[in-house]
């Protein structure tokens, strides 16, 4: 049976998302992703990119920040309804209002059927250990869903400090040992810190979004080939990187069938309970 490829971090973008000025810095050094658009993209555009890369399912995320929703939770739910066998919803929250954020998280899971939530600390210019995050972590534990976030440097021109795995993700995992944390974007330039944290904590994982296979740091490839074979999930950060481009050179990694199956899909199925 062929391995189903699951993209652990993607977006079906709205025009608000694609056209936001913060992403201009990313377009200087990404190739093949979507540029700014005049109108809304059909869900078929994301499905076509998935098909080109051989991706079976994508976890598509909402995008909420201090200035509002670039992709709203209800918009994500509407995208998923158009392709429920291909798209899986991931919510986003306004953590400036913790009580409201918890209520919205419950709605995302119980009413919209989302499988995870993603909040980006750099977007809020707050560390993951800030008190505003802790009610969300607690509710994720109660609901049994992963908390997804970004680790490593920030592509948009905002400070990168809050993407450090140590001390931030390490401390969160100590305070919430039952919380499943998926750190996207590999953690570069602190990849070895992220590997150490994922090794230390059973419920901390890494996804490879925002990096093509040929740009994976050697330390991550060694980890994936060895004791981290169950802890690394494939991701793209579509629309910034198309799946086909993200996977170029996969055979050169020489992962072997079992490790490749876990990395490309089985790990995500287990972590997100798909």
Describe this structure as you would to a colleague.
- This protein has 274 residues and is an alpha/beta fold.
- It has a single domain, classed as TIM Barrel, CATH 3.20.20.
- Helix content is 38%, strand content 15%.
- It contains twelve helices and ten strands.
- It has helices spanning 15-18, 24-27, 43-53, 73-82, 98-110, 121-124, 134-143, 165-175, 191-200, 218-225, 243-246, 257-272; strands at residues 5-10, 55-61, 63-65, 68-71, 87-91, 116-118, 147-150, 181-184, 204-207, 232-233.
- The protein has an eight-stranded parallel beta sheet. Strands 3-4 form a two-stranded antiparallel sheet.
- Helix 5 packs parallel to helix 7 and helix 8 runs parallel beside helix 9.
- The chain is globular.
- The protein starts with a strand and ends with a helix.
Question: TL;DR?
Answer:
The protein is α/β, with parallel strands linked by helices. The protein contains 12 helices and 10 strands.
What's the Cα radius of gyration? 17 Å
Q: What shape does the CA trace take?
A: globular
Largest sheet: 8 strands, parallel
Query: Could you state the order of secondary-structure elements as H and E?
Result: EHHHEEEHEHEHHEHEHEHEHH
Stretches where pLDDT is under 50 for at least 5 consecutive residues are: none
Determine the CATH superfamily: Metal-dependent hydrolases
- State which percent range the strand residues make up: 15-25%
CATH architecture: Alpha-Beta Barrel
Give the tally of β-strands. Answer: 10
């Amino acid at each position: 049976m062929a391995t189903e490829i699951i993209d652990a971090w993607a977006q079906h973008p709205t025009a608000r998302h694609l056209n936001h000025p913060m992403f201009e810095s990313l377009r200087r050094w990404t190739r093949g992703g979507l540029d700014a658009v005049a109108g809304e993209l059909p869900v078929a555009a994301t499905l076509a990119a998935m098909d080109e890369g051989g991706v079976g399912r994508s976890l598509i995320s909402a995008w909420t920040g201090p200035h509002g929703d670039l992709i709203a939770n209800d918009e994500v739910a509407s995208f998923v309804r158009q392709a429920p066998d291909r798209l899986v919803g991931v919510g986003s929250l306004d953590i400036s209002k913790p009580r409201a954020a918890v209520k919205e998280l419950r709605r995302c899971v119980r009413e919209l059927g989302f499988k995870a939530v993603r909040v980006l600390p750099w977007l809020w210019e707050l560390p993951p250990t800030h008190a505003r995050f802790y009610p969300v972590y607690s509710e994720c534990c109660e609901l049994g869903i992963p908390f997804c976030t970004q680790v490593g440097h920030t592509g948009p021109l905002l400070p990168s400090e809050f993407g450090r795995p140590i001390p931030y993700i390490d401390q969160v995992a100590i305070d919430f040992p039952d919380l499943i944390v998926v750190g996207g974007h590999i953690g570069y330039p602190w990849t070895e810190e992220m590997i150490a944290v994922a090794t230390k904590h059973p419920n901390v994982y890494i996804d490879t979004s925002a990096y093509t296979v040929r740009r994976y740091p050697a330390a991550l490839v060694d980890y994936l080939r060895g004791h981290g074979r169950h802890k690394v999930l494939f991701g793209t950060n579509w629309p910034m990187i198309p799946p086909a481009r993200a996977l170029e050179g996969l055979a050169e990694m020489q992962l072997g069938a079992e490790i490749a199956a876990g990395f490309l899909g089985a790990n995500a199925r287990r972590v997100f309970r798909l």
